[in-house]
Amino acid sequence: MYRSNKPIHLSPYDHPDIYPGPRPATSFVFYKGVAHKLEEDHTSIEESMIHISETNHMYGSLVTDSSEKQSLRDFLSKVNETPIEERIPVIAYGSNVCLAQLVYKSSLNKNVSDLYICFRATIKDTDVIYGAFLAPYGSLPAIIGPVDGAEAEVWVTLLTREQVELMNRTEGGYKLRAHHGGKVLMTTEEQLQTTYAYYYPKALFLEGQYYRFNDIPGNSPLTAVWQADMLNTLREICGYEGTREEFIHLLRWDSSFRHSVKYKLDDHSKIFNHPDWEESQSLLSIREIRQNKK
């Protein structure tokens, strides 16, 4: 089982225990399979300094020194990628900030840019909790739920419209909703008045409470549980008597078994409405968000 010992080169598609997956300790740009550290010194988004990696290691300048720095604006111009103002701010809180998962999703469509900009942030009155459904790879995925007084680490990813469309195709069941309430606090001086996030209002509810992920930093009254231990609990709920790995194999590959587990999860779920997240008919670019602020 994987708990705190999750290898950085594995994604949840390799084993469901990995979910939500290892995530960097600071903001970063992920490009061509290499991470480049972004300084968190409360400058504007475009003027944030990127440490250009001098190695091809996945964690790049997150773990090694770099002698070259550029502003994010200049770096995007140099590599001929979409500028900041044309991108859409989408909150990542589950596996979409795991580098190995980004490698996998980028491989699905080589016509879509593989440059991902990820700024660390904190969200208030929300926690990242277990959803009452199964991902295709057998994990219990994350959702954002209303928890008064909670603070959780999330990431503001600045995506192109094509990247959003790609993410939509990998996030079946979720719907993008908008937040305008000023409760998403980035590590930059500029705070975006509108952000979006994948929303699914059906949480796992056991013994009268929601559960948060042990991997995700935050301050919350909820009990934190590793994915591996939650899958053990699910196995017990289902009354499965085979081995743990057999159970996981069936979750991933046997559609009729997955269907039976779905009914068990329905019996241990709670529907909620999060007042901080609203339905949205359109996705605004950062340029449009800035114009609306004036």
TrEMBL record:
It comes from the Bacteria. This is Acetoacetate decarboxylase. It comes from Bacillus suaedaesalsae. The lineage of its organism: Bacteria, Bacillati, Bacillota, Bacilli, Bacillales.
